[in-house]
Amino acid sequence: MTEHLITDLPSLEALFGDVAPQSIAKESDSLHPVYARWIAAARFALLATSGPHGLDVSPRGDAGPLVRIVDAYTLLLPERRGNNRIDSLRNLIADPRVGLLFMIPGVGETLRVRGRAHISVDPALLASFEHEGKRPLCLLRISVDKVFFQCARSILRSRLWHSQEHDTSGVPTPGAMLAALTHGEIDGGAYDSALPQRQRESLY
After folding, report:
1. Which of 42, 145, 189, 191 lies in the 20 to 30 Å Cα band around 108?
2. Which residues contact 179 (CB under 8 A, 6 or more apart)?
3. How far apart are CA 148 and CA 102, in angstroms?
């Protein structure tokens, strides 16, 4: 089956053909004002990191905006309360490179940011991100290297924002997944029953 694998760059580029001029023109090495406006409206993003144990992608969300724009080359992203696995943060200790995919419900395009992130515990900055009386434990100071928007084709194909078309009746609940993975050691029903209140109480 190896004869059907593409293993070199010329073969890959020949498969897809030339890059459209507009796909090159949309790329910026800083937060152009029009991109800053887009990011300011975003409350959700996926954060990609790389470390000794592999790659990781995790969601980030906030009441809005998700990040603070310091200048054309700098973003601040608070690390809100989570499950304490800190997979992304562990990766950043070893490798500061990050990728961010910002999404806005109802908008087909997404915005991609590549850069380098460092973990800060600056007391003044943490205080400035206080929400409902709670401060983040740390924040990411992200130096922007590249910004560009992604076309809407994947969102349109998946009809992601057409929630009425998605049947979620067969999707396992968090409790069902935990029960299956632990062979019943965790009571899935009890977990699901307590989860909504626990999430409300620990949102920040």
Report:
1. 145
2. 186, 187, 188, 191
3. 11
Q: Which domain holds residue 196?
A: 167-204
CB 102 within 8 A of CB 42: yes
For the stretch 86-134, pLDDT in tens is: 999 999 999 999 999 999 999 999 999 999 999 999 999 999 999 999 9
Report residue 193 as tokens. Answer: 């029953």
How far is 61 from 185, CA to CA, in rounded Å?
Answer: 31
d(CA 183, CA 171): 19
Q: What is the pLDDT of residues 32-86, one digit of tens each?
A: 999 999 999 999 999 999 999 899 999 999 988 999 999 999 999 999 998 999 9
**156/199 same-domain check:** no
Tell which residue, 186, 169, 168, has the closest CA to residue 177: 186
Both 86 and 171 in a single domain?
no
Q: Give the global pTM.
A: 0.94
Q: Which CATH number characterizes residue 22's domain? A: 2.30.110.10
